Each structure stands twice: as C-alpha cells, then as structure tokens.
Amino acid sequence: AVAIRMRPLNNAEGNNERTWKVLPKYASIAQTTRDGKPLSERITGRTFFTFDKTFGEDTNNKQVYNSVAKGIVNSAVDGLNGTIFAYGQTSSGKTYTMQGAGNLEQGMGGEGGVVHMAANDIFSQIVQKQERIFLVRVSFLEIYNEEVRDLLGDPNQTLKIREDPRRGVYVESNEEVVTDFDGLLKILVRGDKSRTFASTAMNERSSRSHTILRITIESREKDADEGMDIENREPSSDGAVRISTLNLVDLAGSESVRHTGATGERQKEGGLINQSLLTLSRVIVALGAPNQTHINFRDSKLTRILQPSLSGNARMAVICCATPSELYLEETRSTLQFASRAKLVKTNAQVNEVLDERSMIRRLQKQLAEAKR
Ligand code: ADP
Ligand code: MG
C-alpha cells in the first residue's frame, strides 16, 4: 500500500499558504490556489493524485499505523516478509511517523510511532499463539554515504554486504534476541544513541542517512511433549520453521533526488547525490513497469540489503510524508510522483518455511540435542 501523510505547517512555514489539500474520502491530494480552488493541470504540472490512503494534518500515528502498517506487522508474525518505508523530504515527518512524537524511550507514553506499535503488536500476537514457539531477533543498521554501519555494534566500523548461495544477500550485523516490548525498545534506544555519538553533524547526517530496523521472527509448532521436563523430552520434531523479516525503514531526505527521478536529469544542487535513494527510485520504477527488464539492485547498499524484500516476496507499505506548504511545492510534488510510481509495484508474499539451519530455532535445538548426548 502507498499512503501520503501531510503534516501540519510548522513555525517556519507559518505565514505561508497551503497549496496541497488532502481529500481523505477520495484518497486523493489536490493542488489548490491559496483560497482552496483547484488548479488547472496545464498551467502547473500534475495537480491531482490518488493513492491507497491519504492522511491529513489532523491524523495521528495510531491512525496511520492501523490503516497501513498493522496488517503487515501481523502477517509478519505468521511468516510473511514485510517492509514499511517512510519517504519524504527532510522535516516532512518520517521520523515522527516511525519513532513517535516524543523521544524513543517514551514509547507508548508519548505518541508512539510505527516501531512502538509494531513491537507491541508482535508480542501480543505471540502471546495469543499458544500453539507455536517463537524467537524474535532484531538488528539495526544505518547507511550513510554508501557505508553500512551496525547501530548495535561498533559504530566506527563499516559492514560488508555478503552473498551466499544458501542464505542469499546478508549483512553480518549484531542481532539481539528480544522477548518483549521493553526489550525491543531498549535496543532501539541503544541503536539511536550510537547513531548520535558517531556523528558530529547529527542533523546533516540524519537527513542523508537511512536506518533499517530489521525484526526477524521465527516460529514452529510446539511438540506434543513441549510442556514436559526437558530431560524427558524426545529430541524436537523436524517440523518446518517459519522465518520472516520485517524491515522498518526511515529513509534519507528525498530533496537530494529532487531533480533526478524518472527523467534522469542531473541534480542541480551541490552536495552528494544520495546513491541509495536514487537507486531506490529507479528500482521502484523498474518494479512497477509492465515489462520488467533488468533491475539494478546492486547499484546501492540500500537496495541490495532490501533486495529480498523488494523482489516481490514481501508485503510493502510506503508512507510518503510531505508538507502542504507553498514553500516546498516542488519537493512535495516530487514526493507525490515517487508515491505514484510506488503504487504500480505489485508484490506477492508467501509464507517462508525452512527445514535447515538457516533458522536460529533449529540451530538452538541442535545444540541442545548435542548437549544432552
Ligand atoms: P523527518 O524525519 O522527515 O526529517 P521529522 O519527523 O523529524 O522529519 O519532523 C520534523 C518536525 O516536524 C519535528 O519537529 C516533528 O515533531 C514535526 N512533525 C512531523 N510530523 C508531524 C505531525 N504529523 N504532526 C505534528 N508535528 C509533526
Ligand atoms: Mg528523520
């Protein structure tokens, strides 16, 4: 699903007029004159867009989450991969949407974001599914200037992306097993701190970097004798283990790709081109094209890491954040254009079951069986 979220005007935009009007009933966004009249397309370029969902200024995080993210989170617990992106220019509300209004620690106390509500839903789903055993682990990565860093490891070290015929594309990052909401939140806070310490110009960096919070959920059916004392149990059944990953991605500010996009026009501003964001745009265009040709996932770290999720076997939501302010008319139009292209991407997620040691549950079982011998 692709959604647009317009945030309220901020102080700096306070005296400026709104140029975009959200029509939630029609899941549409229209460009208007200062007195709210619709504009003619011929004069200004595209002025009317329709999406799966549109959220106006009075929407809160809970409404956004329930409407576009919750279904993906719950199906991740059932074994389907999922990816939720926040896209938009700097200051458009990406982090507000993903991490909430207050600081991360406040969690559900402040207005939590997608990550808080996802963590909450994952563990409440798990508690309800008595017939299965779950294992949840988390990793937290940052991509800045085409370097991948582990926010749960040494932030001064860069990580390599590896490829293995069996495992596919992966990054050797730290993974932490978590067993409840608070545990997951602690990890998030730790990762966020590591990000701040590693940087001298935090603002510049945060607008140019991507963060990927990856939650891997494994589960298998409980054995009939699961409740018994461990000494009396048969070695565990060989049933398949479901594995799914849920990626929660807070993207770099999209203003750095404003002048590139579909036309491929060189960007006019100075500064580094954000290779990852640019490649993501191109990959999205290619994925949505009727005749898919070669897709260049390898052109950036972000698309390479997310390749398994972008290739179709994952449910996907893109939450595009924007300001209605006239000051950023073109940035917002460019975000709406990206969102229109993302709408064309079709996915077909399947439950992933494995029988080998790709699952941590399986590896732990084996260790346990060996220790007993
Ligand atoms: P981004 O991550 O896209 O750069 P932020 O999420 O940090 O932007 O938002 C920029 C500022 O706008 C923050 O101060 C944030 O609290 C505020 N803000 C963003 N979205 C909203 C919203 N929907 N309602 C109220 N304030 C918001
Ligand atoms: Mg941000």
TrEMBL record:
Top-level taxon of the source organism: Eukaryota
Species whose genome carries this gene: Fragilariopsis cylindrus CCMP1102
Record: residues binding ATP: G88, Q89, T90, S91, S92, G93, K94, T95
Transmembrane portions of the chain: none
GO MF: ATP binding; microtubule binding; microtubule motor activity
Protein name: Kinesin-like protein
Swiss-Prot/TrEMBL keywords: ATP-binding, Coiled coil, Microtubule, Motor protein, Nucleotide-binding
Keyword Nucleotide-binding included in the entry's annotation: yes
A UniProt-annotated Pfam family: Kinesin
Family stated for the protein in its record: Belongs to the TRAFAC class myosin-kinesin ATPase superfamily. Kinesin family.
PANTHER family assigned to the protein according to its UniProt record, in alphabetical order: CENTROMERE PROTEIN E, CENTROMERE-ASSOCIATED PROTEIN E
GO biological process, one term: microtubule-based movement
Gene Ontology annotations for the cellular component aspect, listed alphabetically: microtubule
Lineage of source species: Eukaryota, Sar, Stramenopiles, Ochrophyta, Bacillariophyta
All copies of domain Kinesin motor, residue ranges: 1-345
